[in-house]
Amino acid sequence: MARNARGLPTRRQDPKGLMVAYQYDRALRLVALSNENDATYTFAYDHSDRLIEEKRIDQLTRRL
Predict the structure, then answer these.
(1) Which conformational region is residue 57 in: left (phi greater than 0), alpha (psi within -120 to 50 degrees), or beta?
(2) How does 11-34 read in b/e, with b if 16+ C-beta sit within 10 Å?
(3) d(C-alpha 42, C-alpha 34), whole Å
(4) Per residue of the chain (64 residues), what is the pLDDT tens digit?
(5) Which Pfam families match (predicted)?
């Protein structure tokens, strides 16, 4: 598993060699996850660092 300077995972490889990638914002919150099929999920947060939105690969947006 690859990690950034803050120790957060940036990518991991499964036993089949497929990769999952993680992206973070400046506040170190997860903002995107790309899975083994190159499908990307995105995440949005409010000013209190609470997760408020998740956009899935099928473009379905879930607001929390």
Answers:
(1) alpha
(2) eeeeeeeeebbbbeeeeeebbebb
(3) 9
(4) 999 999 999 999 989 999 999 999 999 999 999 999 889 999 999 999 999 999 998 878 999 8
(5) RHS_repeat
Q: Which of 42, 25, 24, 26 is nearest to 34 (CA)?
A: 42
Instruction: Work out the percent of the chain whose per-residue pLDDT is above 90.
Output: 84
Instruction: Give the Cα separation of 40 and 21 in Å (integer).
Output: 9
Rg (CA), the chain: 13
Cβ neighbours of residue 1 under 8 Å, at least 6 residues apart?
A: 9, 11, 12, 13
CA distance 33 to 56: 10
